[in-house]
Amino acid sequence: MPSNLLSATGFTPDSVAVSSADGSYTWAGLESRARRFAACLAAEGLSAGDRWALLARNRIEWTPMILGNLRAGTRYVPCNWHLNVDEVAYQLADSACHLLVVDAADEEVGREAAAVAGVTRIIVLDTTFEAWLDAQADVEPPEGPAGSVRNYTSGTTGRPKGVQRSDQTGDARSILTGFSANWGRFYEFPEHGTHLVASPMYHALPTAFHNAALGLGQSIHYLGRFDPEEFLTTVERLQATTAAIVPTHVVRLAKEVETLEGRHDLSSLVSVVHGGAPCPRWAKEVLLDWWGPVVYEMFGSSEGTGPLRVTPREWKDRPGTVGLPAPHLRVAAFDDAGTRLADGTTGNLYFQRDDGQPEYIGAPDKTAANRLPGGWFTVGDIGWVDGDGYVFLSDRKIDMIISGGVNIYPAEIEAALIAHQAVSDCAVFGIPDDEWGEQVKAAVQFEAGASATDEDLIAWCREKLAGFKCPRSIDVHGELPREATGKLKKRYLRDIYWEGRERAI
Question: So what CATH class is 226-396?
Answer without folding.
Answer: alpha beta
